[in-house]
């Protein structure tokens, strides 16, 4: 979490990105995605979230599990969503959609674009 926060804060603060890319990508008419590509992207997202329910295995160990377990799951899920969205904004800030196309290690390429080749390598 610390390294993700460093990349987010450092990327927006010290990185060589372009905020116009973020607004163009989010608000522009030229960005479209097919349902097939969207479904394929969900495969990678499912790997990222494949442990969110593990907290429920500890239900007997938690004080007041009826209240605290759903609260922990909700807060944790919201926290992960916020981090994930901010990280993706940093990627868009650093790289255009064309530069991300076909790249599996987007974080490395974004770090190189933001801070130079020595950081991402």
Give a short summary of the structure:
The protein is an all-alpha fold and 121 residues long.
Describe the structure using short key phrases.
121 residues, mainly alpha, 0% strand
Give the strand tally: 0
Q: H/E element string?
A: HHHHHHH
> Are there runs of 5+ residues with pLDDT below 50, and where?
none
- Structural class based on helices, strands and sheet pairing: mainly alpha
Largest sheet: none
C-alpha geometry: globular
The oligomeric state of the chains shown is single chain
Contiguous helical run count = 7
Rg over CA atoms, rounded to whole Å, is 18 Å
What integer is the average pLDDT?
81
Amino-to-carboxy terminus distance: 20 Å
Would you kindly provide a written description of the structure presented here, covering whatever features stand out?
The structure is a single chain. The protein has 121 residues and is mainly alpha-helical. The protein is 69% helix and 0% strand. The protein is built from 7 helices and no strands. α2 (19-27) crosses α4 (65-94). The chain is globular. The two termini are 20 Å apart. The model has no long low-confidence stretch (mean pLDDT 81).
């Amino acid at each position: 979490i610390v390294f993700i926060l460093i990349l987010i804060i450092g990327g927006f603060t010290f990185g060589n990105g372009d905020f116009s890319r973020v607004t163009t990508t989010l608000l522009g008419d030229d960005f479209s995605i097919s349902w097939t590509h969207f479904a394929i992207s969900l495969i990678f997202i499912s790997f990222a979230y494949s442990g969110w329910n593990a907290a429920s295995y500890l239900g007997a160990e938690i004080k007041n599990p009826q209240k605290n377990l759903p609260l922990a799951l909700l807060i944790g899920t919201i926290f992960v969503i916020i981090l994930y969205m901010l990280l993706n904004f940093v990627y868009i800030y650093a790289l255009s959609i064309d530069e991300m196309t076909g790249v599996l290690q987007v974080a490395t390429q974004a770090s190189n674009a933001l801070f130079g080749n020595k950081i991402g390598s």
